[in-house]
Amino acid sequence: MKILGIESSCDETAAAVVVDGYRLLSNVVASSADLHVQYGGVVPEIAARNHIEVILPVVQEALEQAQCTWADIDGIAVTYGAGLSGSLLIGVMTARTLAITHNKPLYAINHVLAHVYANFLTETSLPGFKMRATQPAFPMLAIIVSGGHSQLALFENHFDYRLLGQTQDDAIGEAFDKVAKILGLPYPGGPSVEKAAQNGDADVYKLPKAKMPGYDFSFSGLKTAVLRLAQAEIGESYDFPSTKLAARLSDSQKVNIAASFQHTALQTIVDKAAQAYEEFSPESVVIAGGVAASGGLRAELSERIPIPIEYPDFKLCTDNGAMVATLGCFTVLTDQPPADPYSLGIEPNLSM
Ligand code: KG4
Ligand code: ZN
């Protein structure tokens, strides 16, 4: 069974073909990230307009890379939430149209859940991918950390999961992006904060870790603490504008703040993940979402959790069509009904 996955929830336009939920035949991602750099974050209008321009060529390239024609495709999976409305609409309308014109079943995919399913890909002949050796076993603890989500979920089986906890304010990736802005580091913030932190010392500044009940998280207090720290370091008061901070901070102040922030933010996730591991003794622990690309997160989790921490190839951590196609395969394999190609809508605030 070959499923074409289409993803357009944020600033990546992506398509991929996956066989039976484990074999990746193609993976095409066109990002408009470069167009957003000058604004320090994704501009929804620009992202949506860019999706319109590239989505059909991206789908075409995904089919060609997979050496497939439409006749080989058994179904189309598309992200219908969560995400930016304008961006989601382009993917969903494109997938609906393709499903109708090529007479294929259409599967509606939850973006956050799809991130988890990037962990089920184990084979590819595409160059440059380090694939997982095996699919994760159930029960599976999923640590979902992206620009829009920070969640811990316990999966007993496919589509049988419960949310243990989630962020009550900002997502961890969002905090990385905002801290990068304060420090004058380029968008997206995660990789640039990680790079800066490598040259910094996390012990120079002590930032507060939010104490949240159960398995919930909070990152907005940490973000504000970084802002206050930066203002204090240059001898200014709380009303000094954040946009002017970067020009006044020295390089060593920047890298040390980046290191302290990264350490505190990652510890927040790692503490709760280790606690969940002890309480539920899962067979596998997976990380998913853009922040799963963080080398620091992987290293700190490995120190605290006794079983191997599993994660997808770096290119499959950030938004992509492969994860959407993989979850589409499991939707079919578990006999779930397809969506109506004449009426599928978007759900920008879809939760898990
Ligand atoms: O999953 P994703 O591509 O998009 C969403 O669904 O949100 O995640 C993007 C997020 C951004 O906030 C980005 O800064 C963060 O993932 N990110 C990282 C790293 N690489 C990407 N955060 C920390 N360290 C990284 N190396
Ligand atoms: Zn994502």
Secondary-structure blueprint of this entry?
Blueprint: E1 2-7, E2 12-19, E3 23-31, H1 33-36, H2 44-65, E4 75-81, H3 85-101, E5 106-110, H4 111-117, E6 123-124, E7 140-145, E8 150-157, E9 160-166, H5 172-183, H6 189-198, H7 220-233, H8 245-248, H9 251-280, E10 284-288, H10 295-304, E11 309-310, H11 314-317, H12 321-333
Parallel strand pairs: 1-4, 3-6, 4-5, 7-10, 10-11
Antiparallel strand pairs: 1-2, 2-3, 7-8, 8-9
Number of domains: 2
The rough form would be described as globular
The level 1 CATH classification of the largest domain is Alpha Beta
Uncertain spans:
none
| Ligand list | 5'-O-[(R)-(carboxyoxy)(hydroxy)phosphoryl]adenosine, zinc ion
Cα distance, first to last residue? 26 Å
Stated plainly, the CATH topology of the largest domain is called Nucleotidyltransferase, domain 5
Structural classification: alpha/beta
Helical element count? 12
Average pLDDT, all residues = 96
Q: Going across the major beta sheet, what is the strand order?
A: 5-4-1-2-3-6
What proportion of the residues is helical, as a percent range?
40-55%
Number of strands: 11
| Computed Rg | 20 Å
Share of residues in strands? 15-25%
Order of helices and strands: EEEHHEHEHEEEEHHHHHEHEHH
The biggest sheet, with number of strands, parallel, antiparallel or mixed sense and barrel status, is: 6 strands, mixed
